[in-house]
Amino acid sequence: MYTYSSRVRYSETDINGRLSLYSLLNYFQDCSTFHSEEIGLGYKYLLEKNLLWVMSAWQIVVNRYPDLCENIIVGTAPYDFRSVIGYRNFWLDTETGERLACANSVWTLIDTAKGRPVKPSAEIVNGYALAEKIPMDYADRKITIPIRGTALSPIEVKAHHLDTNHHVNNGKYVSIAMDLLEKPDCDICQLRAEYRKSALLGDIMYPEIINTENTSIVILADKEGNPYCISEFTTK
Length: 236
Fold this sequence. Notes:
twelve-stranded antiparallel beta sheet; alpha+beta; 12 strands
């Protein structure tokens, strides 16, 4: 288990003065990075081993978005390894123990030299102290697309969408998808995101949106309709 304390910054808030969903996702992503660096299995270690953890799926459940300047505690713990897949929980609490948000994530380890998934070594598995799964209503990692949606204007991948792996960062897909929602300031209580392939600099993503009573699904796909990422937003 790994935790760190922070305070909600103005740059992390939405138009309502609360932590934005995108910033919450970044807190969780940063927390896993800090954890890996702390135990010596971080960015440089993976680079030397020609390895890369790729996000396969997110599920983030929000009970309450903290306000500007509110003190928060961010935590994470991996809870399982299965073949080439790693599973990790996250949580966001107040200093008094209120559970603001929790998350489940699924990761795939990639051998970058061979371009294919690979099982983590004993060094990696033993480096992470596995914890019990936190209590939450776990959703399937696969997102069902119920009907065809409405096609929106294409989006070109720019440099600011990329991370150190030279592909679109998992949080950027969600940020792009949120910009396409009819009500971008809606009160989202759950995010699910399924990542199917990596978009690179100069790629064109073709968005499609499906709206129901309290759910919006945004598909970011290539020209042939093969999804890069599918995001599902559920409102209260």
